[in-house]
TrEMBL record:
Its cofactor is Zn(2+). The active site is at 145. This is Protease HtpX homolog. The chain crosses the membrane at residues 14-34, 40-60, 154-174, 194-214.
Length: 299
């Protein structure tokens, strides 16, 4: 089987796995809540409602959620003709529909793609990317993001970000509920109170673990594959290689685009920057390795 189609199939399997894991986690939480209120049916019903809402929002509205979280605004062809012309040319070359285009107003160069399939996808770039890259470098970055859309990486990334965000939110709610319960004198005691306390601890522990799982889900292999696919699309690997070198040296500490939930979907992790040593827990492969592989490609 072609590596691209293998990657697409693997990404869809990962998405189903994420949904299954999320459903099991919510069922456990709902069961515990049901014990606390002496109605397991009610707890499972609440969990089912949360699961259905998260499913619908992440699948149908995930792209909008992510661009909103990133502080991006949609731009028209009249506003950004240069960006539109670049993306239109690559869309035709890739045989993909034209994605929606978003812009983040910051001088830090970076970009990401989001959505659920090629027909419902978007590409977001920063104003810094537009200003600091030349035409061939910008094409390399856009082609990389097009590859994420074509390989269905965006589906997994979008769903994972929204679901992880829900779990983190539930963790915060459980933590504040626990504090509130302590200050009110624990008016619900007995075994139900102990179960609720255990649930609280589980949520507090699971929230960051789930976020970490998200980082691994958006794996290094997908970045290598998107690099290769993007370079193949433009026929000029040096454009993307040069862009990666520039972008990786221009990330800033505490910049506008840094967001723990979103860092993994950018072409260069905004939290890594140029001077941080790559490590086993990074969401992206080392930039030097990506550049080396691109420059080894032959056409």
């Amino acid at each position: 089987m072609d590596p691209i189609y293998k990657s697409i199939a693997a990404n869809k399997r990962w998405t189903y796995l994420f949904f299954s894991f999320y459903a099991i986690l919510l069922a456990i939480i709902g069961y515990s809540i049901g014990l606390y209120f002496n109605s397991i049916t009610l707890g499972l019903f609440i969990a089912g409602i949360i699961f259905a809402l998260a499913l619908v929002v992440s699948y149908y509205g995930g792209q909008s959620v992510i661009t909103s979280m990133a502080g991006a605004r949609e731009v028209s062809k009249q506003e950004e003709p240069y960006l539109y012309n670049t993306v239109e040319a690559l869309s035709i070359a890739a045989g993909l529909p034209l994605p929606k285009l978003y812009l983040i107003d910051t001088d830090v160069p970076n970009a990401f793609a989001a959505g659920r399939n090629p027909e419902n996808a978007s590409i977001t770039v920063t104003t810094g990317l537009m200003e600091r890259l030349d035409r061939l470098e910008l094409e390399g970055v856009i082609a990389h993001e097009m590859a994420h859309i074509r390989n269905y990486d965006v589906l997994l990334a979008t769903v994972a970000v929204v679901l992880a965000g829900t779990i983190v939110f539930l963790g915060y709610m459980a933590r504040y509920s626990a504090y509130g319960g302590l200050f009110r004198g624990r008016d619900r005691g007995g075994s139900a109170g102990i179960i609720f306390l255990i649930l609280t601890l589980v949520l507090i522990i699971l929230a960051p673990l789930f976020a970490q799982l998200l980082k691994f889900a958006i794996s290094r292999k997908r970045e290598f594959l998107a690099d290769a696919t993007g370079a193949d699309l433009t026929g000029y690997p040096e454009g993307l290689a040069s862009a990666l070198e520039k972008i990786s040296t221009m990330q800033k500490p505490k910049s506008k685009i840094q967001n723990t939930a979103l860092n993994g979907i950018y072409i260069i992790n905004p939290a890594i920057g140029a001077n941080t040593v790559s490590n086993l827990f990074s969401t992206h492969p080392p930039t030097e390795e990506r550049v080396r592989k691109l420059r080894e490609m032959e056409f």
